[in-house]
C-alpha cells in the first residue's frame, strides 16, 4: 500500500478524534456558563421545574400579605396549583451543567424558559439543589425536602466528582491522541502509540457519560416521584445526551481505526516499486546484495567445475582393485 493510501488511512481516525473533542466539549463543558448566551443556556443536563414547589406550607406568612396558609386554605386557594416559586422567593427553574448552574423564569405568554442568573463556573461544583433553594428562599428557614430527595443527595457529590474526573481526563487523552496521531503519518509505530491514547480516551469518556446520565436521570425520577407532595419535577436534555453519546461512539470508531493503521496501511508498496525500478536501471538499490566469497577471490560468479575427459584414467589402477573393463557385446 502506497504512501497516499497510508495518508488516507491515518486521516480517517485523526478526523474522528477531532470530531470527538468537538462533540464532547459542546455537550459537556460549555453549557450553563454565560447568562447572556441562549445557545449555551440550552446545553444543560437536567432542568428542575420549581414553579409549583409546595413550600408555602412552611411559611408563617405569605410574603406581601398578612394572610397565612390556614386562611388561604379556608377561602379555597389551592397552593399546589399556583406558581408558588414567587411566594417562596426562588426561581421558576434550575438547570445543571458540569461547572455551574443557571436559573430563571418561565414566560407563560411565549412558553419560554428565560435564564436570568448563572453561578460562577467552578471545578468543585455539584448540583446541590437543596442548598441552592434554601439559600434563595425568603422564609428565613430551610425548606423541608422529601426524604427520598435527601437520601439521594448523599451520593450526588461523589458521583458528580467521579464524572467530572472522567470527563477531564477523557478530553485530555483525546487531545493527546490528536497530537500523537500526526506521527501516524510517519510509521506504524506512531499509530501504535496513538492507539494506546485512543483506548484510554474512549473508556474514560464512556465512564463519564454513563455516570452523568445515571446521576441526572435518577435525580429527575426522584423529584418526579415526589411531585404530588413537593411540586418539583425534573426533565433531562435529550439533545445534549444524543450529542454526548455520538461523541463517545465516534471515539470508539477512532480507536478501531487507529488499531487498523497499526497492523495495516504500512506504505511500503511505494518503496518496493521504487526499488524494482532502480534495479532495472542499474542504479544501486537498498536491500540485500551478494557479497564476495573469500573462497572465490572476488564478487563474480564461481567458475564451473573442470570437466573430466572420458577414459582419462582408463587402465590406471588407483587401488587394490582393477577397474572395470568395457567390452563391446
From TrEMBL:
Region called Disordered, residue ranges: 276-329
GO annotation, cellular component aspect: cell cortex of cell tip; plasma membrane
Pfam families, per the entry: SUR7
Organism listed in the record: Orbilia oligospora (Nematode-trapping fungus)
Keyword tRNA processing: no
Transmembrane segments: 12-31, 164-186, 198-219, 240-260
Official protein name in the record: Uncharacterized protein
Keyword Membrane in record: yes
Taxonomic lineage from the root: Eukaryota, Fungi, Dikarya, Ascomycota, Pezizomycotina
Biological-process GO terms, alphabetical: fungal-type cell wall organization
Keyword annotations from UniProtKB, A to Z: Membrane, Transmembrane, Transmembrane helix
